[in-house]
Amino acid sequence: MTPEQYKQLSIKEFSEAAKTYDTNHAGLYEMCKDDYPQMLAELEKEPFFDVLDVGCGTGAVIALLNDKYPGRHYVGLDLTPEMIEVARTKVAPGMEFVVGDAEDLPFGDASFDAVLCSNSFHHYPNQAAFLAGALRVLRPGGRLILRDYTSNDLVVWLMNHFELPLARAFGHGDVRVLRQRDFVGAARAAGFEVVSMEAQKDFRAHLVARRPR
């Protein structure tokens, strides 16, 4: 498949998911909500004002942040227009939502204190382009907080060779899952300093990386 074909699959998948994503009937997407507390707890470890959430979906993380820390600047970006349409129903002062590509972030250099990315990284055909863009839009010392799927080498191989191709056959836009060391290697190759990389329960990778000061 071409990168554009992967992206079109994701748009189709999440256009449908947008209809129920914020309800109690979100199906397999319900598990994505389990990542919100870890994302926010990590972000809260250091001061922040400008935050970008890439793959923001319906804007749930930004809404939570704005409720807890109003008066700051939050931007959500998602490839799927229907997701952003739902997110914009939550807009409050200091919040904005943009339709855009994670691999070509439409923001100026050094614009954000933190970039968040939760459960969308495995949908990116060019993950290196996203990481390079995240580094660029972060201020010196700013953090990338990324949660996605990972496991041991065998399970990741099985995911990439069996589970994800099957998911694509059913209309999902999943591209690839990385091993733990691949997350670290990719972040460093993009120019990040890796603060921490953990394999947590439920096959979750939790990567924190910093733009050098």
Task: Give the end-to-end Cα distance, rounded to a whole number of Å.
Answer: 38 Å
β content, as a range?
15-25%
What is the tally of beta strands?
7
Task: Report helical residue fraction.
Answer: 25-40%
Order of helices and strands: HHEHEHEEHEHHEE
* Low-pLDDT residue intervals, each spanning 5 or more residues: none
Largest sheet: 7 strands, mixed
Helix count equals 7
Instruction: From the alpha carbons, calculate the radius of gyration and give it in angstroms.
Output: 16 Å
Shape: globular
**Sheet with most strands: strand arrangement:** 3-2-1-4-5-7-6
In short:
With 213 residues, this protein is of the alpha/beta class.
Which tags fit this structure?
alpha/beta, 7 helices, 213 residues
What's the arrangement of secondary structure elements?
Layout: H1 3-17, H2 36-43, E1 50-54, H3 60-68, E2 73-78, H4 81-87, E3 95-99, E4 112-118, H5 127-137, E5 138-149, H6 153-169, H7 180-190, E6 193-200, E7 204-210
Parallel strand pairs: 1-2, 1-4, 2-3, 4-5
Antiparallel strand pairs: 5-7, 6-7
